[in-house]
Amino acid sequence: MKRMLLCGVVFALFAVGPVFGAPVKIIFDTDMDSDCDDAGALACLHAMADAGEAEILATVCSARFKFSAPCVEAINRYHGRPDLPIGVPRGRETGAHQGSKYAETIAKEFPGKIKSYDGAPAAMEIYRKILAAQPDGSVTIVTVGDVTNMRDLLETKADGFSDLAGPELICKKVARWVCMGGRYPEHLDPKMFGNFKTDPQATVAAVRDWPGTIWFTGLGEEIMTGKCLRETPADNPARRVYELYLGKTPTRPSWDLVATLYAVRPDAKFWHLRTKGYNHIFENGTNQWREEPTKNHVLIELDADGEREVQKIVEELMCRPPKRPSKITPTG
Q: Domains of the chain: which residue ranges?
């Protein structure tokens, strides 16, 4: 109980996020397998980092798909950040083995240092090393896939990076967890795809045990983006991801892009925050926003005007030319 009370104090101090004007320190956590919007979100994040709005600390995978990590590396390299830490979940078998319409092709057409899942380090090594090295209350984590790594981080023990166990390390270093998942006010269909259902046990545990505030978003269904990628260079891996996933369809909903934009620009005036109530997660990964009791959960919302504004912003960001591009010659 004392630990949770201390965390409450820490998060009250840092709930407004990093110091105004300073780049937001971001750990981007993605499955990078099931949908193309992960690639669009990562492209947006790089664009905001180029503009000095964000400092990307790591781009971690939550998926065990063999080629997710190489796909992430290809996008990082295109945007001039080939050495960003990338980790993958190890340990407990979750049963989450999704395929991908694009990740293997990207890995083979844009080969890098990481060839497959087996060539990437453990996500928890990346998380603990990076969090331990950052200033207190400075890090934003944005998850745009399943939340396996959040549950695993909570379960970590003291190690060579920090003498703090997972909950205490989170309490000390993390300012925000922005979580893309669920639908609101409820998502009760167990057959419909959703990030919370990929590893439902992790979702239940992470949301239940997280020692600070969680900002949830399910926005993006009506925000269609990606058309401009067709006008970007052929060596842009994000363009290729959208081509492989969509075929002739020009656009895709922007779930992950919205979450990433909020993570970097939480003070934009078009966001509306619901602070009353909490996100109830059922055992099968479905969810329901309940008005009582109020917990340390925040629901991010947009009105119609806000959706239109966000659509313009993320469309421009995902297609913005890299500030320091790495020349890539696709092999395919």
A: 2-12+23-318
By the 8 A CB rule, do 35 and 245 touch? yes
Q: Which residues contact 232 (CB under 8 A, 6 or more apart)?
A: 238, 239, 319, 321
pTM score over 0.90: yes
pLDDT tens-place values along the chain, 332 residues long = 333 434 654 444 334 444 447 999 999 999 999 999 999 999 999 999 999 999 999 999 999 999 999 999 999 999 999 999 999 999 877 655 678 999 999 999 999 999 999 999 999 999 999 999 999 999 999 999 999 999 999 999 999 999 999 999 999 999 999 999 999 999 999 888 899 999 999 999 999 999 999 999 999 999 999 999 999 999 999 999 999 999 999 999 999 999 999 999 999 999 999 999 999 999 999 999 999 998 899 999 999 999 999 999 999 999 999 987 665 556 65
Secondary structure (DSSP) of 39-106: HHHHHHHHHHHHTTSEEEEEEEE----TTHHHHHHHHHHHTT-TT----B--SS--------SSHHHH
Task: Could you please state the CATH topology (level 3) that the domain comprising 2-12+23-318 is classified under.
Answer: Inosine-uridine Nucleoside N-ribohydrolase; Chain A (3.90.245)
Using CA atoms, how far apart are residues 300 and 311, in angstroms rounded to an integer? Answer: 16
CB 145 within 8 A of CB 31: yes
